[in-house]
Design brief:
Elongation Factor Tu (Ef-tu), domain 3; disordered N terminus; 6-stranded antiparallel sheet; Gyrase A, domain 2; 2 domains; alpha+beta
Length: 362
Protein backbone atom coordinates (compact mmCIF):
# COMPACT_ATOMS: atom_id res chain seq x y z
CA UNK A 1 0.00 0.00 0.00
CA UNK A 2 1.29 3.47 -0.86
CA UNK A 3 2.22 5.65 2.08
CA UNK A 4 1.40 9.37 2.26
CA UNK A 5 3.69 11.81 0.48
CA UNK A 6 6.35 12.88 2.93
CA UNK A 7 5.92 16.63 2.42
CA UNK A 8 2.16 16.69 2.09
CA UNK A 9 0.29 18.55 4.77
CA UNK A 10 -1.54 15.57 6.21
CA UNK A 11 -4.49 16.22 3.90
CA UNK A 12 -7.43 13.89 3.61
CA UNK A 13 -8.67 12.44 0.36
CA UNK A 14 -11.94 14.34 0.28
CA UNK A 15 -12.85 17.15 -2.09
CA UNK A 16 -10.82 20.34 -1.93
CA UNK A 17 -12.69 21.71 1.03
CA UNK A 18 -12.87 21.36 4.81
CA UNK A 19 -9.85 20.38 6.89
CA UNK A 20 -7.69 19.27 3.96
CA UNK A 21 -7.99 22.42 1.93
CA UNK A 22 -7.86 24.62 5.03
CA UNK A 23 -4.48 23.09 5.81
CA UNK A 24 -3.33 23.79 2.27
CA UNK A 25 -4.65 27.35 2.39
CA UNK A 26 -2.99 28.02 5.74
CA UNK A 27 0.29 26.53 4.54
CA UNK A 28 0.26 28.59 1.37
CA UNK A 29 -0.55 31.78 3.22
CA UNK A 30 2.13 31.41 5.90
CA UNK A 31 5.02 29.79 4.04
CA UNK A 32 5.02 30.73 0.37
CA UNK A 33 6.72 34.02 -0.57
CA UNK A 34 4.89 36.73 -2.48
CA UNK A 35 4.71 36.15 -6.22
CA UNK A 36 7.57 37.74 -8.16
CA UNK A 37 6.41 40.51 -10.50
CA UNK A 38 8.34 40.68 -13.79
CA UNK A 39 8.74 44.07 -15.44
CA UNK A 40 6.51 45.14 -18.33
CA UNK A 41 9.34 44.78 -20.84
CA UNK A 42 9.84 41.14 -19.79
CA UNK A 43 6.23 40.32 -20.65
CA UNK A 44 6.49 42.34 -23.86
CA UNK A 45 9.65 40.53 -24.92
CA UNK A 46 7.70 37.27 -25.13
CA UNK A 47 4.65 38.76 -26.80
CA UNK A 48 6.38 41.09 -29.26
CA UNK A 49 9.70 39.42 -29.98
CA UNK A 50 11.17 36.39 -28.27
CA UNK A 51 12.67 35.58 -24.90
CA UNK A 52 14.34 32.84 -22.93
CA UNK A 53 14.38 32.06 -19.24
CA UNK A 54 16.45 29.56 -17.24
CA UNK A 55 13.94 27.77 -15.01
CA UNK A 56 14.75 27.18 -11.36
CA UNK A 57 11.27 26.03 -10.32
CA UNK A 58 11.75 22.56 -11.83
CA UNK A 59 13.82 19.51 -11.03
CA UNK A 60 14.58 16.44 -13.14
CA UNK A 61 14.38 12.80 -12.06
CA UNK A 62 16.20 10.26 -14.23
CA UNK A 63 14.87 6.70 -14.38
CA UNK A 64 17.35 4.13 -15.68
CA UNK A 65 17.59 0.36 -15.91
CA UNK A 66 16.01 -2.43 -17.95
CA UNK A 67 12.71 -2.12 -16.10
CA UNK A 68 12.54 1.67 -15.86
CA UNK A 69 9.76 2.06 -18.43
CA UNK A 70 7.63 -0.78 -17.06
CA UNK A 71 8.12 0.39 -13.49
CA UNK A 72 6.97 3.94 -14.28
CA UNK A 73 4.15 2.53 -16.40
CA UNK A 74 2.77 0.90 -13.26
CA UNK A 75 3.06 4.12 -11.21
CA UNK A 76 2.02 7.03 -13.44
CA UNK A 77 -1.26 7.95 -15.09
CA UNK A 78 0.16 7.87 -18.61
CA UNK A 79 1.84 5.25 -20.79
CA UNK A 80 5.62 5.16 -20.38
CA UNK A 81 5.98 1.62 -21.71
CA UNK A 82 5.42 2.88 -25.27
CA UNK A 83 7.00 6.31 -24.90
CA UNK A 84 9.16 6.77 -28.00
CA UNK A 85 12.20 8.93 -28.68
CA UNK A 86 10.30 11.55 -30.69
CA UNK A 87 7.63 12.56 -28.19
CA UNK A 88 7.06 13.75 -24.64
CA UNK A 89 3.99 13.13 -22.49
CA UNK A 90 2.32 14.70 -19.52
CA UNK A 91 1.65 12.37 -16.61
CA UNK A 92 0.49 12.45 -13.02
CA UNK A 93 1.44 10.46 -9.94
CA UNK A 94 -1.46 9.69 -7.60
CA UNK A 95 -1.96 8.46 -4.10
CA UNK A 96 -3.90 5.25 -3.58
CA UNK A 97 -6.99 7.46 -3.22
CA UNK A 98 -6.52 8.94 -6.68
CA UNK A 99 -5.21 12.33 -5.55
CA UNK A 100 -2.33 13.88 -7.47
CA UNK A 101 0.98 13.98 -5.62
CA UNK A 102 2.91 15.36 -8.59
CA UNK A 103 2.70 16.18 -12.27
CA UNK A 104 5.43 15.42 -14.80
CA UNK A 105 6.53 16.01 -18.34
CA UNK A 106 8.15 12.70 -19.37
CA UNK A 107 10.45 11.89 -22.26
CA UNK A 108 13.26 9.57 -23.29
CA UNK A 109 16.89 10.60 -23.50
CA UNK A 110 18.71 7.57 -24.87
CA UNK A 111 17.97 4.71 -22.46
CA UNK A 112 16.92 7.13 -19.71
CA UNK A 113 13.37 8.27 -19.00
CA UNK A 114 13.34 11.80 -17.66
CA UNK A 115 10.68 13.36 -15.46
CA UNK A 116 10.40 17.13 -15.22
CA UNK A 117 8.69 17.95 -11.92
CA UNK A 118 8.06 20.91 -9.65
CA UNK A 119 11.19 21.32 -7.53
CA UNK A 120 9.31 21.62 -4.26
CA UNK A 121 7.83 18.09 -4.48
CA UNK A 122 10.72 16.36 -6.23
CA UNK A 123 12.56 14.90 -3.24
CA UNK A 124 9.44 13.50 -1.59
CA UNK A 125 8.06 12.08 -4.84
CA UNK A 126 11.38 10.52 -5.81
CA UNK A 127 11.67 8.91 -2.37
CA UNK A 128 8.13 7.59 -2.54
CA UNK A 129 8.55 6.15 -6.03
CA UNK A 130 11.83 4.50 -5.00
CA UNK A 131 10.03 2.66 -2.20
CA UNK A 132 8.05 0.68 -4.79
CA UNK A 133 10.88 -0.34 -7.11
CA UNK A 134 11.40 -3.52 -5.05
CA UNK A 135 12.87 -6.17 -7.41
CA UNK A 136 12.54 -4.14 -10.60
CA UNK A 137 15.75 -3.36 -12.46
CA UNK A 138 15.28 0.36 -12.18
CA UNK A 139 16.93 3.26 -10.43
CA UNK A 140 15.82 6.83 -9.83
CA UNK A 141 18.31 9.66 -9.51
CA UNK A 142 18.11 13.42 -9.05
CA UNK A 143 19.60 14.81 -12.27
CA UNK A 144 18.85 18.45 -11.44
CA UNK A 145 22.45 19.23 -10.56
CA UNK A 146 23.76 18.05 -13.92
CA UNK A 147 21.04 19.43 -16.18
CA UNK A 148 19.83 22.90 -17.05
CA UNK A 149 16.23 23.64 -17.97
CA UNK A 150 15.71 26.60 -20.26
CA UNK A 151 12.37 27.84 -21.60
CA UNK A 152 11.95 29.83 -24.80
CA UNK A 153 8.84 31.65 -25.97
CA UNK A 154 7.82 33.88 -28.83
CA UNK A 155 9.76 34.38 -32.05
CA UNK A 156 12.61 32.04 -31.12
CA UNK A 157 13.00 29.77 -34.16
CA UNK A 158 16.01 31.60 -35.55
CA UNK A 159 17.79 31.57 -32.21
CA UNK A 160 17.13 27.85 -31.76
CA UNK A 161 18.24 26.99 -35.29
CA UNK A 162 21.77 27.87 -34.23
CA UNK A 163 21.63 25.10 -31.62
CA UNK A 164 19.42 22.36 -33.11
CA UNK A 165 19.45 21.05 -36.68
CA UNK A 166 15.67 20.69 -36.64
CA UNK A 167 12.87 22.05 -34.47
CA UNK A 168 9.85 20.15 -33.14
CA UNK A 169 6.89 20.62 -35.49
CA UNK A 170 4.10 19.81 -33.04
CA UNK A 171 3.13 20.00 -29.39
CA UNK A 172 5.07 17.51 -27.25
CA UNK A 173 7.26 16.58 -30.19
CA UNK A 174 10.94 16.25 -29.17
CA UNK A 175 14.22 16.56 -31.03
CA UNK A 176 17.66 15.74 -29.67
CA UNK A 177 21.00 17.37 -30.36
CA UNK A 178 24.47 17.63 -28.90
CA UNK A 179 23.17 20.26 -26.46
CA UNK A 180 20.29 18.16 -25.14
CA UNK A 181 16.58 17.76 -25.87
CA UNK A 182 14.18 20.35 -27.24
CA UNK A 183 10.47 19.82 -26.57
CA UNK A 184 7.68 21.94 -27.93
CA UNK A 185 4.96 22.61 -25.38
CA UNK A 186 1.51 24.16 -25.88
CA UNK A 187 1.43 27.73 -27.18
CA UNK A 188 0.29 30.65 -25.05
CA UNK A 189 -1.19 33.79 -26.59
CA UNK A 190 -0.46 32.21 -29.98
CA UNK A 191 3.30 32.28 -29.28
CA UNK A 192 5.52 29.24 -29.69
CA UNK A 193 6.97 27.71 -26.53
CA UNK A 194 9.84 25.28 -26.09
CA UNK A 195 11.67 23.57 -23.23
CA UNK A 196 15.37 22.89 -23.69
CA UNK A 197 16.88 20.41 -21.24
CA UNK A 198 20.50 19.33 -21.43
CA UNK A 199 23.87 19.18 -19.71
CA UNK A 200 24.55 22.44 -17.89
CA UNK A 201 28.00 22.88 -19.38
CA UNK A 202 26.68 22.40 -22.91
CA UNK A 203 23.78 24.80 -22.48
CA UNK A 204 25.90 27.45 -20.81
CA UNK A 205 28.18 27.62 -23.83
CA UNK A 206 25.18 28.61 -25.96
CA UNK A 207 23.73 31.26 -23.67
CA UNK A 208 25.96 34.15 -24.89
CA UNK A 209 24.67 33.56 -28.43
CA UNK A 210 21.10 33.48 -27.14
CA UNK A 211 21.68 36.79 -25.36
CA UNK A 212 22.51 38.39 -28.72
CA UNK A 213 19.14 37.35 -30.19
CA UNK A 214 16.69 37.07 -27.29
CA UNK A 215 15.96 38.87 -24.06
CA UNK A 216 16.52 36.92 -20.88
CA UNK A 217 13.50 37.26 -18.60
CA UNK A 218 12.30 36.08 -15.21
CA UNK A 219 11.24 32.43 -14.83
CA UNK A 220 7.99 33.85 -13.39
CA UNK A 221 7.03 34.77 -16.96
CA UNK A 222 7.02 31.04 -17.76
CA UNK A 223 4.64 30.38 -14.87
CA UNK A 224 2.32 33.01 -16.37
CA UNK A 225 2.55 31.44 -19.82
CA UNK A 226 1.84 27.98 -18.40
CA UNK A 227 -1.30 29.33 -16.78
CA UNK A 228 -2.49 30.82 -20.07
CA UNK A 229 -1.74 27.53 -21.80
CA UNK A 230 -4.13 25.99 -19.28
CA UNK A 231 -1.60 23.47 -17.97
CA UNK A 232 -1.87 23.02 -14.18
CA UNK A 233 1.26 22.11 -12.25
CA UNK A 234 1.10 20.19 -9.00
CA UNK A 235 3.19 21.91 -6.34
CA UNK A 236 3.53 21.18 -2.63
CA UNK A 237 0.64 23.37 -1.40
CA UNK A 238 -1.87 21.44 -3.53
CA UNK A 239 -0.42 17.93 -3.29
CA UNK A 240 -3.13 15.32 -2.63
CA UNK A 241 -5.94 17.77 -3.37
CA UNK A 242 -7.13 16.79 -6.84
CA UNK A 243 -8.21 13.78 -8.84
CA UNK A 244 -6.58 14.23 -12.31
CA UNK A 245 -9.83 15.24 -14.01
CA UNK A 246 -10.28 18.11 -11.55
CA UNK A 247 -7.22 19.76 -13.10
CA UNK A 248 -8.21 18.80 -16.67
CA UNK A 249 -5.50 16.16 -17.02
CA UNK A 250 -7.88 13.95 -18.98
CA UNK A 251 -8.36 16.74 -21.54
CA UNK A 252 -4.63 17.48 -21.68
CA UNK A 253 -3.71 13.88 -22.49
CA UNK A 254 -2.02 13.22 -19.16
CA UNK A 255 -4.17 10.16 -18.38
CA UNK A 256 -4.28 6.98 -20.44
CA UNK A 257 -7.52 5.19 -19.61
CA UNK A 258 -6.51 2.05 -21.55
CA UNK A 259 -3.28 1.30 -19.70
CA UNK A 260 -2.83 -1.06 -16.78
CA UNK A 261 -3.06 -0.38 -13.10
CA UNK A 262 -1.35 2.43 -11.21
CA UNK A 263 -1.96 3.87 -7.73
CA UNK A 264 -5.40 5.42 -7.59
CA UNK A 265 -6.48 4.07 -10.97
CA UNK A 266 -9.83 2.77 -9.74
CA UNK A 267 -10.79 6.18 -8.40
CA UNK A 268 -9.67 7.94 -11.57
CA UNK A 269 -11.48 5.48 -13.83
CA UNK A 270 -14.65 5.58 -11.75
CA UNK A 271 -14.68 9.37 -11.93
CA UNK A 272 -14.29 9.21 -15.71
CA UNK A 273 -16.87 6.60 -16.57
CA UNK A 274 -19.53 7.21 -13.96
CA UNK A 275 -19.81 10.92 -14.62
CA UNK A 276 -18.82 11.95 -11.13
CA UNK A 277 -16.54 14.85 -12.07
CA UNK A 278 -18.33 17.91 -10.78
CA UNK A 279 -15.20 20.04 -10.47
CA UNK A 280 -12.90 21.43 -13.15
CA UNK A 281 -10.05 23.89 -13.52
CA UNK A 282 -10.62 27.32 -15.06
CA UNK A 283 -8.52 30.37 -15.93
CA UNK A 284 -9.15 33.62 -14.08
CA UNK A 285 -7.68 36.95 -13.02
CA UNK A 286 -7.71 38.57 -9.60
CA UNK A 287 -7.31 42.35 -9.77
CA UNK A 288 -4.98 44.31 -7.52
CA UNK A 289 -1.45 43.98 -6.24
CA UNK A 290 -2.21 41.02 -4.00
CA UNK A 291 0.35 38.98 -2.08
CA UNK A 292 -2.33 36.59 -0.84
CA UNK A 293 -2.98 34.88 -4.19
CA UNK A 294 -1.07 31.63 -3.96
CA UNK A 295 -1.50 27.97 -4.73
CA UNK A 296 -3.65 26.30 -2.09
CA UNK A 297 -5.74 29.33 -1.15
CA UNK A 298 -9.44 28.51 -0.95
CA UNK A 299 -12.23 30.09 -2.99
CA UNK A 300 -15.76 30.92 -1.84
CA UNK A 301 -18.99 31.51 -3.73
CA UNK A 302 -21.06 34.62 -3.12
CA UNK A 303 -24.16 32.53 -2.41
CA UNK A 304 -22.52 30.09 0.02
CA UNK A 305 -19.96 31.75 2.30
CA UNK A 306 -19.94 28.85 4.77
CA UNK A 307 -17.77 26.44 2.79
CA UNK A 308 -15.15 26.68 0.04
CA UNK A 309 -16.14 26.04 -3.56
CA UNK A 310 -12.62 25.58 -4.90
CA UNK A 311 -8.92 26.27 -4.64
CA UNK A 312 -6.13 28.13 -6.43
CA UNK A 313 -4.00 25.59 -8.30
CA UNK A 314 -1.38 27.92 -9.77
CA UNK A 315 -0.84 31.69 -9.66
CA UNK A 316 1.44 34.15 -11.45
CA UNK A 317 1.71 37.90 -11.74
CA UNK A 318 -0.21 39.12 -14.78
CA UNK A 319 1.04 41.40 -17.53
CA UNK A 320 -1.86 43.83 -17.24
CA UNK A 321 -2.00 43.86 -13.45
CA UNK A 322 -3.24 41.62 -10.74
CA UNK A 323 -2.65 37.90 -10.67
CA UNK A 324 -3.63 35.28 -13.24
CA UNK A 325 -4.66 31.93 -11.79
CA UNK A 326 -5.72 28.44 -12.62
CA UNK A 327 -8.45 27.55 -10.15
CA UNK A 328 -10.26 24.30 -9.43
CA UNK A 329 -13.92 24.87 -8.60
CA UNK A 330 -17.27 23.19 -8.42
CA UNK A 331 -18.85 23.51 -11.86
CA UNK A 332 -22.04 24.70 -10.20
CA UNK A 333 -20.15 27.70 -8.79
CA UNK A 334 -19.58 29.01 -12.32
CA UNK A 335 -23.26 29.03 -13.26
CA UNK A 336 -24.30 32.13 -11.31
CA UNK A 337 -23.11 34.54 -8.67
CA UNK A 338 -19.42 35.23 -8.16
CA UNK A 339 -16.33 33.46 -6.86
CA UNK A 340 -14.00 35.13 -4.36
CA UNK A 341 -10.52 34.62 -2.96
CA UNK A 342 -10.18 33.56 0.66
CA UNK A 343 -13.75 34.39 1.75
CA UNK A 344 -17.09 35.27 0.21
CA UNK A 345 -16.25 38.96 0.74
CA UNK A 346 -12.71 38.61 -0.65
CA UNK A 347 -11.42 39.80 -4.03
CA UNK A 348 -13.60 38.58 -6.91
CA UNK A 349 -12.28 36.39 -9.71
CA UNK A 350 -12.85 37.40 -13.32
CA UNK A 351 -13.00 34.23 -15.37
CA UNK A 352 -11.24 34.05 -18.74
CA UNK A 353 -11.55 31.51 -21.57
CA UNK A 354 -9.25 28.50 -21.52
CA UNK A 355 -7.37 27.72 -24.76
CA UNK A 356 -9.18 24.38 -24.99
CA UNK A 357 -12.68 23.06 -24.46
CA UNK A 358 -13.87 20.93 -21.58
CA UNK A 359 -16.25 17.97 -21.86
CA UNK A 360 -19.83 18.44 -20.79
CA UNK A 361 -20.25 16.74 -17.43
CA UNK A 362 -23.34 14.68 -16.74
Amino acid sequence: MNTPLATASGMSSGTSSGTASSAASSHAATVLPALPRPSADEFDAVLQHGAYMPLTQFGVIDATGDDAASFLHGQLTNDTQHLDAANARLAGYCSAKGRLLASFLTWRSGDTIRLLVSKDVQAAVQKRLSMFILRAKAKLADASGDLAVVALAGDVRKALSGVFDALPDGVHVKVDGAAGSLIRVPDAFGRLRFLWIGPKAQIETHLPALDEKLKRVSPAVWDWLDIHAGEPRITQPVAEQFVPQMVNFDVLGAVNFRKGCYPGQEVVARSQYRGTIKRRTSLANVAGELDTVKAGVELFHSDDPSQPCGMVVNAASARDGGVDVLVETKLAALESGSVHLGAAHGPALQFLPLPYGLPTEV
